[in-house]
Structure formats: structure tokens, C-alpha cells
Amino acid sequence: MNLRKRIALAAATTALGTGLAVVPAAGATASAAPAAKPAAVTAATDARLAGPYGCNYTNSEPTLSLGSRGKAVKEAQCLLKHWNVDIGRHGVDGKFGTDTRKAVREFQRRIHRTCHMPVDGIVGKKTWHALKHTGC
């Protein structure tokens, strides 16, 4: 394997291992000349990177409760899965039902003492913050 391929393989492995998604620039081909910017910079400026935990349904953080639906619910469900909380048999479906409420309460219960988190089954500002960050 030549040096160029080894470097590309090492960069791709590092990017995948850290959760960084490298996307080739539009119109790029295998025989195209190297771009002026590294692929990671191009990907970052094009906002093509996945969220910090692989969830990238939305960046909005509305208050969610039983009956809520949509991309924000999918984002919360995905983040709950990231923190190893069982979200029920329906998985990430964008519907805030009883399984999702139970999962939210379980997550809140886990961090209740450390973060003074209310255990109410509602995804509000504090819960969103805790879902997206390792600390309170």
C-alpha cells in the first residue's frame, strides 16, 4: 500500500473512531486533484457532520411531553439510547408515548441527585442539557 493510501486510511479511521463524518466535496471524483481545504474542514463548513452522539434529527429543543411528535422527539429518543436508556419496542419513532415518558423518567432518575433534575417525564431545558452534555 502506498503512502498516500496509508495516510487516507489513517485519516478515515481516526475520523470514524471519533464520530467525525468526512464527506467529499460536491463533484469530487477519485481522480480529481486535491482540494485546497482538507475534507474535514469542507465537511464542517458544509454542516454535514453528525451530532455529538450520532443524533442529528434537529437542533431545536422544545419542551416535550406525552403526545409530542416530530424530529425533536426523535432527537430526544436517540440521545436517550446513547445514554443506554431503554426507549421501548418502538425505538426512535418520533412519537412521545408512554415508553418514551418512562425512558425520560429513568434518565432523570439516574441524574436526579447529581444535577438536581426533576423526575417528571418532561424533556425541558434541564433535561435537554443533560442529554446533550456529560455534566449538569
From TrEMBL:
Record domain Peptidoglycan binding-like: where: 69-131
InterPro entries xref list: Peptidoglycan-bd-like (IPR002477), PGBD-like_sf (IPR036365), PGBDSf (IPR036366)
Superkingdom assignment: Bacteria
Keywords, ordered alphabetically: Signal
Classification via Pfam families: PG_binding_1
Signal sequence extent: 1-35
Gene3D superfamilies per the UniProt record, alphabetical: PGBD-like superfamily/PGBD
Protein name, as recorded: Peptidoglycan binding domain protein
Originating organism: Streptomyces rimosus subsp. rimosus
